[in-house]
Amino acid sequence: MRALRCKKAEAGIGTSIMLIALISISGVAGSMVIDNTSLTAEQAQDVVDETLDNTVTYLDVRSVVGVCDPERELLTSLEMVVVIGPGSQNVNLSSMVIELMLPWDHVFLASGEGGFSSERILSGGLVNSTSIIGDGDIFVLSFDLPNAITCGEEVRLSLTPAEGFVNFLILDVPSTLTTRYVSLR
Question: What pTM does this model have?
Answer without folding.
Answer: 0.64
